[in-house]
Amino acid sequence: MKLQKLIIKNFRGLKGENNIIDFSSSNIIFLIGLNNVGKSSFLRAYEFFINSAQKANTSDFYNYDINIPIEIEGVFLKDEYDDDDDELAAASKGKGTDPDWIKKWVDENNFIRIKKIWTETNTADKFTFSPETDEWVLNGFGGMPSLFQKHSPTPILISAMETENSLEEKVNKLIQDEILKKLKDDYGEDLNELVTGVKRLQQKIADSEIVTKYNEEINEYFKKVFSDLTLKLSPKDDDNIKLEDSFKKNHSVTISKDGIDRNEVFTQYGHGVIRQALYNFLTFLKRSREGKKKEYIILYEEPELFLHPEITFKLRTSLYDLADNSPFQVICATHSPLMIDISKPHSSLVRVIKKEDETTFTYQVGDEVFRSDSDRKQRIQMINRFNPHVCESFYAKMVIIVEGDTEAIVFRDLIKRFYNDYEVYVLNSGSKNNIPFFQEIFTAFHINHCVIHDSDTRLNKNNSINSAWTLNSSIWNKIVSANQIMDGMARRYVHVENFEIAHGITSNGKDKPIRAFNFAQGLQFDSDVPCLALLKDLLGDKIILHDNNYIEQLN
């Protein structure tokens, strides 16, 4: 079963019912947001949810308040492989079986909804949603803990501070789950010979002098009480000797340096190498088992930690590749825009925010915004090539979108000198044509944003309609739409015709950036110029209104 959606209420740092991540069109999700908004709580929540015997501690409840229940719901997609699973087909339920589990718990879209609720520091009540009755049923499929845990994707946490011991523990678990399941198929004959040999050895030991002596001594006092009974130590009459268990937790991970004939100590290389070793073991599994059946979820805490930027870029590429056509789904919590490539398909960004009352919300953006058609895909690829730092804007509280280099230079300088205490990111969109695209992204993320652009002229020099003029209405319409979603999310200001004309700057084109810098450096806080007036209004009373009516009367 593939995890389709995870809904979390009041777990650790996550408050309220608006904490949702959706894998419907994604195999990899990056959680972004400020510190202490609950990103790591998302990673821990799936582990918490899947564990069949998980008990809640006081610290697991939001604000340590056990009167506010923890509620986690998982929506799973039954895939084609589940139909052929004998264990699922005869799902155990009490002393009987539930061969019709698909009819009972799987809806018309092939979704299974399972919910767990912790009301005190104890194990959870488990519910399954019944499509037949349209109600949550206590236990149900979710009440078969071993079955649910086995067939839902297994969590693999790569935490920020992995140790050598935690690395070995996780590697052994993966070996147990992945490699040993093939042991009987690939080495069945060898296993049978070993099992026969073990049985012969057991019998020899049972018939040995020392065991015979043990049996005599054990019965010396036992028969004084039960004279007609005899105790005897002997091998179990068990044909199901699990010799493969001897391989479990029996693997260590060592590291050595090329050219030096000795094993090195992991700790001398640091957490970055340990985390990368675990990650590389996962990529090995991916190469050994291509396929779309999702069996694992990698929960990666800040992948960029302890890594050089060049290595970070390589890891980013590897992560996207790992999630594609493999047994893995991936959730990463990251503070680094270097980890994000918005041109990659089947990937999403989830912005996690915390309101003033501590309620947390998630806003997810994926293929529907970044790559919904070929034009958007080409635009994203172009933006990535010309401005690889564009993803920094997704971490901002407030974004000013400008057309090009001139405006970016001027507004960055003014903010640095006059509004340095404000958290404002100036995004150079590269072109007026790109502005509506960025508006959609920031609106989807619920990021406050302001567009500052040229009004341009209604007609070109040959009296044809100027396409740049027609963009004015498109930009304003998206401002209106954003404010309908969240009041005050978006604003728009214009420079009449263009920045240079509005400020009396002459330029031959090639010297525009340096002239813009010199112009900005010559401004004082009380200078009477349009750009400074607009910035003061944006970060002040917000009185100026540059709507479509204002632009239409310009020319």
TrEMBL record:
Lineage: Bacteria, Pseudomonadati, Bacteroidota, Flavobacteriia, Flavobacteriales
SUPFAM superfamilies membership: P-loop containing nucleoside triphosphate hydrolases
Listed Pfam families: AAA_15 (PF13175), OLD-like_TOPRIM (PF20469)
InterPro entries according to UniProt: AAA_GajA/Old/RecF-like (IPR041685), Bact_Antivir_Def_Nuclease (IPR051396), P-loop_NTPase (IPR027417), TOPRIM_OLD (IPR034139)
Name assigned to this protein: Uncharacterized protein
Start and end residues of each OLD protein-like TOPRIM domain: 394-456
Domain Endonuclease GajA/Old nuclease/RecF-like AAA: 1-113, 115-340
Taxonomic superkingdom: Bacteria
